[in-house]
Specification:
With 719 residues, the protein is an alpha+beta fold. The protein folds into 4 domains: 18-170 and 225-472, Collagenase (Catalytic Domain); 483-523, no CATH class; 586-644, Irregular (Echistatin), CATH 4.10.70.30; 648-719, no CATH class. A hairpin with a 2-residue loop joins β19 (374-376) and β20. α3 (254-273) crosses α5.
Length: 719
C-alpha cells in the first residue's frame, strides 16, 4: 500500500487511541449453509479481539443493502475513459456484539484490515487503518479509539469556532411568491393538501410530474404539493472521488477508495435510518428514510481539459469551495440520481470541510433532493449536489468519525435543513446534550446530540421529504429471518437460512420451539444454556477493569446478561486513574487537577497535569511514562520518546542546507509554496518598506528645513 508523504499527528484529533494488528483478530465461521446460496445470511462470521480494555465478540454476516441492486463502480482516467471495477460485496459486514442488547456493528474487512464502527449503549468504538494517520506503521496495523476520545479538529486551540460548512440556496426566483411555508406549525391548507394526496394515492398517478415550458425555464407541473410515497425510503446516490481523494484517502488504490466510500455511507445511512422525522415529539412521524449507493466514480488521475475549460477534477492548486461545487454541478449525469456528492482532499480557505445546495419544500424550487435542472451563466446546473473534504484546517486527514459527521451534515442540507438557529430548543448547551448535527459551527466534541437532528431540522427535512421524496426515492430491499439477529416480531434467530432446520431452540420461522420446552436461544442470548435460562451466577461477561466494570453473572430468571456491577471506588483503572461511581476518573482529576499534554519534547511522554485551566502543564513524576501509542506534542509515544510523524519546515530547511542539490531545493519549494511565497514577500517588502520610510523621513526633513529657512528670511526682512 502506498503511503503519502503528507500526513499528520493524531494529537489534534484524539485524546487517546491504541494500535491493533491484523494478527490480533480471531476469525471463526459460525455457520455456513449446507445448501449453496448467494444470500448474505448464508454465512455467519464471529470476530474476536481485545482493545481499549475490552473483549469484543462480534457476530457478523455479509451486508450490502446500502448498495443498489444495479450498483456500478468505475475507475476514470484523465481522458474520461471508464473501466468497470468489481466490488466484493462479501467484504462488508453488519452485526452485533454478543450479549449486548441494542448494539450494532458495521465493518469492512480487506486482507485482514478492519474499518468499522461498533455501537453499544454506553460507548461507540471506531477502527480504521493506521496508514492514513501514522505513515510509519505497516499495512496490517489499525488504530482503535472511542467516540469519547475524539477531539474534533474543527475546534481551534484558541477556542474559536470556525465555520466548517456552508450551504447554497440557488434559484429562489423560481419559487412561488405566494407560498410562505411555516417550518414550525403545519397550516390547515397544508393539511388539506395532504388529505387530497391521500385520496389520490389510491388512484393512478401517471399524469403527475408532466414537464411544461415557461419561457426558457422548464418547470414541473404539480398535481399536489406532496409527492410522498411511504414505501419509497431510499435516496439513490452518485459518489465521486477526485484524483486527490483517490491518492490520499484511497492510497492510489481504486478498490480501497470504493470500500472507504461504501463504509462511510453505510454509517451515515444508519444516522438517517434511525431518525424519526416529526414536527413535534408528541406527534406521529415516520422513519426508515436513508440512502442506497447506485454508482461510484473514482478518478485515478487529473482530468485533462482544453484551454479555458474548467472541470472539478482538473489540476488546480486552489479552488474556491463554492466555485468547485458549481463546476461539479454541471455534470449531466446527476439528473439520474437523488443526490450526487463529490469527495476531495483539497484544503479550503477558512477550514471549510463541506458545501451543499439546500433543499426546499416549495414546488418549483431547485436545490437538494430530487431537483429539476437550473440554468445559470450559460450552463445547465443540477443542484442535487454537495461536496466534502478529507483535509482539515490543520492540513491533516480527518478521522473516520469526522468524515461521517461532515458527510451527514452536508446530506442534511440537501434534504432541506439549514443551520440550526441559536435558540435553546435547537442549540442547547453541553449540559443539555450539546449541539445537534446541523449546528452552524460544527460540533466541538462528543455530546449525545452531535449525531442527531435538532427539532428545527426534523421539521424542515420532514417538509421536504413529504414534498419531494416520491419523485426520486426508491424502495428498499427486504430483510429476512435468518441473520442471527432477533428483530421485529422474531422470538429468536438461529441463522438457519440455507441450512437444515436442526437448531434445538429455534425453528426456521424464527420462533422458539416452545413445545419442546425452549424458553430462549443459545445463539442469541448469553444467559441461555440448552434452551433454558442459565443458572444464577454463571459468568456472562468478563470483567473490564480498565472501564471499572466487574464480572457480570446471569440471574437465573432471564436470558439477558445484566449490566456489570461497578468496581469498587479507588480501584486503579486505565492510565493510573481511579474508579469512582463506575467510571474511570483520570489520574490528574483524582488529584484535584486537570489532565493535559506537556508541550516540551523532553516531557511529552510523561504524565502531565495542570493545577487549573490557565496554568502551566507539568510532569507529575519523571518516571511516570505514558504507554506506547499515546498522542504527544509532535506525534505519538514510543518507549517513552515522542516520535515525530511529520517534518516541520525548519527541519526541512536544515536538511536542504546539509545536502544541497537542485532536486532538494525544487522539492522544498514545491511542497512549501505558500510558506516560501510568504517568506520571499517578507524578504522583499520589509527592507523596501524600511527604505521608503527613510526616504520619506529625509524628504519631510528637507521640506521642514527649507520652510524654517524661509520663515527666518521673512523675519529678517521684516526687521
Amino acid at each position: 500500500m502506498k503511503y503519502s508523504s503528507f500526513s499528520g499527528s493524531l494529537s489534534n484529533n484524539l485524546k487517546y487511541y491504541e494500535t491493533l494488528h491484523s494478527s490480533s483478530f480471531n476469525h471463526h465461521i459460525v455457520k455456513r449453509g449446507a445448501k449453496q446460496s448467494n444470500h448474505p445470511f448464508n454465512t455467519i462470521k464471529e470476530l474476536h479481539f481485545k482493545t481499549l480494555g475490552k473483549d469484543f465478540r462480534l457476530i457478523l454476516h455479509p451486508h450490502s443493502t446500502v448498495l443498489h441492486s444495479n450498483f456500478k463502480a468505475y475507475a476514470v482516467d484523465g481522458e474520461g475513459k471508464k473501466t468497470v471495477v468489481h466490488v466484493d460485496r462479501g467484504n462488508f459486514y453488519t452485526g452485533r456484539v454478543f450479549g449486548e442488547k441494542l448494539s450494532d456493528v458495521k465493518l469492512h474487512i480487506d486482507n485482514g484490515v478492519v474499518t468499522g464502527i461498533i455501537h453499544t449503549p454506553d460507548e461507540t468504538y471506531h477502527i480504521e487503518p493506521s496508514w492514513r494517520h501514522l505513515p510509519d506503521q505497516d499495512d496490517g496495523t489499525m488504530i482503535t479509539y472511542r467516540s469519547s476520545d475524539i477531539h474534533f479538529s474543527w475546534t481551534h486551540n484558541n477556542g474559536s469556532r470556525p465555520r466548517v460548512c456552508g450551504y447554497v440556496k440557488e434559484g429562489q426566483e423560481l419559487e412561488d411568491d405566494d407560498e410562505d411555508y411555516n417550518y414550525n406549525v403545519e397550516s390547515k391548507q397544508e393539511q388539506m393538501e395532504k388529505n387530497k394526496y391521500l385520496k389520490k394515492s389510491q388512484q393512478s398517478d401517471h399524469h403527475n410530474n408532466v414537464p411544461y415550458e415557461d419561457g426558457n425555464k422548464k418547470r414541473m407541473k404539480r398535481q399536489s404539493d406532496y409527492e410522498y410515497t411511504p414505501t419509497k425510503t431510499r435516496c439513490p446516490l452518485l459518489l465521486v472521488a477526485d484524483y486527490r481523494f483517490f491518492q490520499e484517502m484511497g492510497a492510489s488504490n481504486t478498490k480501497t477508495t470504493i470500500s472507504y466510500l461504501i463504509s462511510l455511507i453505510d454509517r451515515v445511512h444508519k444516522i438517517y435510518n434511525d431518525t424519526v422525522w416529526q414536527d413535534r415529539q408528541d406527534m406521529d412521524g415516520f422513519k426508515g428514510m436513508g440512502f442506497v449507493i447506485k454508482k461510484i466514480l473514482v478518478h485515478s488521475e487529473p482530468t485533462r481539459v482544453r484551454g479555458g475549460e474548467a472541470h472539478y477534477n482538473m489540476v488546480r492548486e486552489k479552488w474556491d469551495v463554492r466555485n468547485l461545487l458549481e463546476v461539479f454541478s454541471r455534470e449531466y449525469s446527476h439528473k439520474d440520481f437523488c443526490l450526487a456528492h463529490l469527495f476531495t482532499d483539497l484544503k479550503f480557505e477558512g477550514g471549510i470541510l463541506g458545501l451543499a445546495y439546500v433543499g426546499s419544500p416549495r414546488r418549483n424550487s431547485v436545490g437538494g433532493i430530487c431537483t429539476p435542472e437550473y440554468f445559470k451563466n450559460g450552463y445547465t446546473l443540477y443542484l442535487n449536489s454537495g461536496l466534502s473534504s478529507s483535509r482539515n484546517h490543520y492540513g491533516q486527514r480527518v478521522i473516520t468519525r469526522e468524515a461521517d459527521l461532515v458527510t451527514a451534515h452536508e446530506f442534511g442540507h440537501n434534504w432541506g435543513s439549514e443551520h440550526d438557529p441559536d435558540v435553546v430548543e435547537c442549540s442547547p448547551t453541553a449540559s443539555q446534550g450539546g449541539s445537534y448535527l446541523m449546528y452552524t459551527y460544527s460540533v466541538s466534541g462528543y455530546d449525545v446530540n452531535n449525531k442527531r437532528f435538532s427539532p428545527c431540522s426534523l421539521r424542515s427535512i420532514r417538509k421536504v421529504l413529504q414534498a419531494k421524496s416520491g419523485r426520486c426515492f426508491s424502495e428498499p430491499e427486504e430483510s429476512f429471518c435468518g441473520n442471527l439477529r432477533v428483530e421485529g416480531g422474531e422470538e429468536c434467530d438461529a441463522g438457519l437460512l440455507g441450512t437444515e432446520d436442526n437448531d434445538m431452540c429455534c425453528d426456521k420461522n424464527c420462533k422458539l420451539r416452545k413445545n419442546q420446552g425452549a424458553v430462549c436461544s443459545d445463539k442469541n442470548s448469553p444467559c441461555c444454556a440448552g434452551c433454558v435460562f442459565a443458572a444464577a451466577g454463571a459468568v456472562c461477561r468478563e470483567p473490564a477493569h480498565a472501564a471499572c466494570e466487574g464480572e457480570a453473572t446471569c440471574t437465573g430468571a432471564s436470558a439477558d446478561c445484566p449490566k456489570a456491577p461497578a468496581i469498587a471506588d479507588e480501584h486503579e483503572c486505565a492510565e493510573r486513574g481511579r474508579c469512582r461511581n463506575g467510571s474511570c476518573v483520570p489520574y490528574c482529576e483524582t488529584q484535584g487537577m486537570h489532565s493535559c499534554m506537556c508541550d516540551i519534547v523532553a516531557d511529552a511522554c510523561k504524565r502531565c497535569c495542570r493545577k487549573s485551566l490557565n496554568k502551566t502543564c507539568f510532569p507529575v513524576a519523571h518516571n511516570d511514562i505514558l504507554p506506547d501509542g499515546t498522542p504527544c506534542i509532535q506525534g505519538f509515544c514510543n518507549k517513552g520518546v515522542c516520535e515525530k510523524t511529520i517534518q516541520d519546515v525548519v527541519e526541512r530547511i536544515w536538511n536542504i542546507i546539509e545536502d544541497i542539490n537542485i532536486n532538494n531545493v525544487l522539492g522544498f519549494l514545491r511542497d512549501n509554496i505558500v510558506g516560501v511565497a510568504a517568506l520571499a514577500t517578507a524578504l522583499l517588502w520589509i527592507p523596501a518598506s524600511c527604505l521608503v520610510c527613510i526616504y520619506l523621513y529625509i524628504f519631510f526633513y528637507i521640506i521642514r528645513w527649507q520652510t524654517t529657512e524661509r520663515q527666518l528670511e521673512i523675519a529678517e526682512i521684516a526687521k
